[in-house]
Every structure is written in structure tokens, then in C-alpha cells.
Design goal:
The protein is mainly alpha-helical and 130 residues long. The protein has helices at 18-31, 41-58, 65-87, 92-98, 101-106, and strands spanning 2-3, 10-11.
Length: 130
């Protein structure tokens, strides 16, 4: 139980623990490893989506938007890094321009993680302008 900042009333503060967030990040890193570049990209993305969808559906409590955004950002970064290795792009800024967030979701089919409810669109992307 935590106390509200304005009212001071107690409320149940339910959110994913740091340990579970580390576990999902480690799993995403494992699923997008460099040695998996010979596997078809659709299989890699399907495995990442399956892991993300399961974790998000298990932890879709009301106070989990920060943890969901961290998991979303890590999934975007890992898929972008995997695409960098697959297409031999060395520069991170070039990769951000070549593989923007919209392409990760629309073209490659990455699962859209939202902080409010599972599966909703989140249009926040931290890419540099090309």
C-alpha cells in the first residue's frame, strides 16, 4: 500500500518488480541475439512478440505504465540492434533513421506495448530526426 501524493489516502500500489523487468529484458536480449541473424526475421519477431505479449498480459495492472514503457523501449532497441547486425549497419544514428519506430511496428510487426491496457497503440518514439 502507498499513499497518494495529493490526498494522502492509501491505495494498492501494484506493479511489476524490478526483478521481473530484468527477466523480460534478458529474455528479449536472448531472443534477438546476434547469432540468430540466420533465422528468418518473421520467426525472430514472432518469438519476441510471444514473450512480450505474455509478459504484458500478466502484468497489466493499473500502476505499471513505467515498467511497460521500459519493456517497450528495450524491445524496440533490441529489434533495431538485431536489424543493424542483419543489414550490416554500423552507426546507431543511421539505424534510427533506417529503422524508425513506425517501421518496427508496421513493417516488421512488433507487438505494441502500452502502459494502460495490453495491446493498445502507444505513439511515443524516441528517435532522432533524419
Amino acid at each position: 500500500m502507498s499513499r497518494g501524493a495529493r490526498s494522502g489516502k492509501p491505495y494498492p500500489n501494484v506493479r511489476p518488480s524490478d526483478k521481473s523487468l530484468k527477466k523480460v529484458k534478458a529474455r528479449l536480449t536472448e531472443l534477438t541475439d546476434r547469432k540468430l541473424t540466420c533465422i528468418p526475421l518473421s520467426d525472430v519477431v514472432n518469438n519476441v512478440n510471444r514473450g512480450l505479449r505474455g509478459w504484458v498480459n500478466y502484468f497489466h495492472f493499473r500502476n505499471s505504465s513505467m515498467a511497460m514503457s521500459k519493456a517497450r523501449q528495450h524491445a524496440e532497441d533490441r529489434l533495431r540492434t538485431h536489424l543493424m547486425k542483419r543489414h550490416k549497419v554500423r552507426d546507431r544514428k543511421t539505424a534510427l533513421c533506417r529503422f524508425p519506430c513506425s517501421d518496427l511496428y508496421n513493417r516488421y510487426g512488433l507487438y505494441k506495448v502500452s502502459g494502460k491496457e495490453p495491446g493498445l497503440l502507444l505513439n511515443q518514439c524516441s528517435t532522432l530526426p533524419c
